[in-house]
What does this fold into?
Amino acid sequence: MDNYVKNYEDLSGEMVSTSVFASLMRKVYLWMAFALATSGLAAYYVATSPQMLAAIYGNSYMMWVLIILEFGLVIGLTAAIRKLSFPVAALMFVVYSLVNGIVLSSVFLTYTMSSIATTFFATAGTFGAMAVVGSVTKKDLTRIGNLAFMGLIGVVIASLINLFVGNGIFDIIISIIGIITFLGLTAYDAQKIKQMMLAADDVNNETQKLAVVGALSLYLDFINLFLYLLRFFGRGRN
It folds into this structure.
């Protein structure tokens, strides 16, 4: 009888743990999808509104304000996540996705709608495949994550240099490295998020904040992968 009770308790605990994990993982990807939709709608709205375009691109300081606000929101959300309440963390994420969408409105001014749509679906498929790889593989992807992070630093530095050099071939090389970098980061982040959610024993404010931070990581991976693919395959407006 004691063994029966123990087995029942173990089974019940396992079922609860599986349910918590599934719920939190669902929240991660729902938050990510919501942020992508918010960014996309904001970008399209700004790109099709002459008043918004004039307000943002007609003022040389406005874009810098938006970029600084973006950095501030990301740094604040990730650095102070333990001190923030869940509603505040969620609000910061939504505001960030909205501001990022405004900044990304230039995409609709630079590339054709067909190439944006094609690249988006290509990004979704590629991102999804790498996220699945990261979630199901038993291999520790920490080394890949470290290499990808170093690649990210290299891409940032190279991009800043190319702003002054303006070399087309160098830009293509940067785009290729950027694509590889964010493919690696997607798999690594997916594995890291899975491990965090497996360790959670309940769906509460703390674990939901982790879901928001996880969604932010995947959102950034998706957006950057999309932008590098767009630079490589996108067709410019005439």
